[in-house]
Amino acid sequence: MTGPRSRKASGVRSLLERAAEAVRNGFVALRANEPAFAVTSAVVLGVLGGYGAIAFREMIRLAHVGFFGTDSYTLALLAAMPWWRRLVLPAVGGLLVGLLVWRIAPEVRGSGIPEVMEAVARRGGSIRPRVVLAKALAAAVTIGSGGSAGREGPIVHIGSALGSSLGQWLGLSPRRLRTFVACGAAAGIAATFNAPIAGAMFSMEVVLGDLTVTAVSPIVISSVVATVVSRHHLGDFPAFVAPRYEIVSSRELVLYAALGVLAAVVGVVFIRLLYGVTALFERSVLPAWVRPVVGGLGVGAIAVAVPHVFGVGYETINGALANTLPGRLLLAILLAKLVATALTLGSGGSGGVFAPSLVLGSVLGGAWGRAVHAAFPLHTAGPGAYALVGMGAVVAAATHAPITAILIIFELTNDYRIIPPLMLACVVGVLLSGLLHGESIYTEKLARRGIRLKEGRDVNLLRAIHVGEVMDRAPETVPAATPLPELIERLLKDGNHELLVTDEAGTLVGTVTLAEVGAILPEAEVLGPLVRAADAADGTVPVLLPSDTLDVAMQLFGRAHREELPVCEDRRGRKVVGTLTRDAVIRTYNRRLVQADLVGSFASLLEAVEAARRVVLPGGYVLTEVEVPASLHGSTLASAGIRSRFGVEVLLVRRPGTENARLPAAGTRLEPGDRLLVLGPAEAIAALREG
Description:
Helices cover about 60% and strands about 5% of the residues. The protein contains 31 helices and ten strands. A hairpin with a 4-residue loop joins β6 and β7 (about 620-625). It starts with a helix and ends with a helix.
């Protein structure tokens, strides 16, 4: 028997399920009105992102209390703390984070923004819902225990995961799901910096990588709503106390340009150091959950001498802006923060790189400002102004997102006079860093996985397919001892103009083509009985491995000027296992490209069908959705024979309760409630409806 408590819990669960279903049905009903759906979704995502940012900040506060016994550790508190506690606390946090990341969600290591970019570019915006809580916990413990990392990256990851989770729950298409992810990211940044314009721009410039997106309105709405939520609960004040700014002399612009050059160098060093340390930890024999402990010990050791490396570093930034930090200390913080952040994130900790970039920029600019102001006191602004510009310049150099950097600094100051030197330093920084290091601090992580967003998805599609998936496993081969007349006959047979020549062990000797044989045809009558296939074979032909990707194959096709290449088990032994043609690569690429795009390309057609029930096309053909008749339930598309029986082409299959559609395959099983997007004559579609 079930007790009263069990029945009560069951009743509450049932009530929540009904409420969730009502909300979902409301969103589904709104989809018929695209503007209303876009605005409503953007507002909801803005609220979720805003409260997600607030909740994350509260989790960091609780972590501070747990590790340091206070809401937030100050530099004065850290200076008074025993040195051994500064050494040990980041390592304890690293242990907790290592166990959490290892057991629950490995993708929450690092800043999380590269993972969001990958999800948008390659997975249609799909992010696992568990990332929301796992990222918040891991980053809160990392930052709260003293790890050198920022909270902006995690908030973007959390906001994006919230948007993706909501979109997946509603069954949205990849096109809409990407917009939901972008809205969540914009809301996170806006709520963090109290900067709605910069939040929207960051989402488009970094997350989507496209400043020409059509779905700008929802992103802006989410950013503004999140800012309103944040201001309501946290107050309407900037993240930093910026100094009053003025340009003392137009000649100062040269000094700001020089600051941009320095920022580019620091940005590139930051990127290379971070991923160099990451590579060292990944190559180490240490278990994954132990690595953050080692990184935490390294951070603690640095903090014994320079406690400014702990946490997000906003107090250090304000000190640089107010010009209260000595010049030598600024340089010490610059070096220490670079190493500490690389150790924290490279070892597997969770946190952002945005705040560390701001810290690096502030101390770099502060040190440069002190130097130039000492040299030209009557012609330069105070060091705080250079610290402010340096913040934007290093962010631009590291992230390759100059517009976001400019807007964030502008929204922090609300002073138009900062724009000219800020733009100059940011543009110089991003241009030079791009020349010195082609990838940003976000795309570098993806590039090391073989994902290069700048090269376009054609290269990425080819890199996702291996030669072994496409090669012909029964290639045409001839023994090395084959006489020339028989070899010519084999080459002419069935239009086969290239053959692989192998020895008795199946090892590649070379390839032979009609063109190569043609060179010795005049002597064939005399030498024919003496010449063997091995004599005519080209042994310098490059070979592919089954593990090679198709982009490697296309490069070899271009270099060798061939239409077909042999595939061997390894390049040393050269045992033939197949062959690959250029045409096969192109056909495979085209097929994958269609598979990647078709659902998104049909999204507008699906919406048109939903609105008008059917679309009449030239020639008497009709595009419409049809529910699978009862007579076909349980059948596969192959066994149902819809094309042969009814003369109707099935374009997409959609499951009930979801907007996601699948490309039809022969083995796709038709279930009750499935709907088919079909194309055919009206009478044929009517016959299909009747079954």
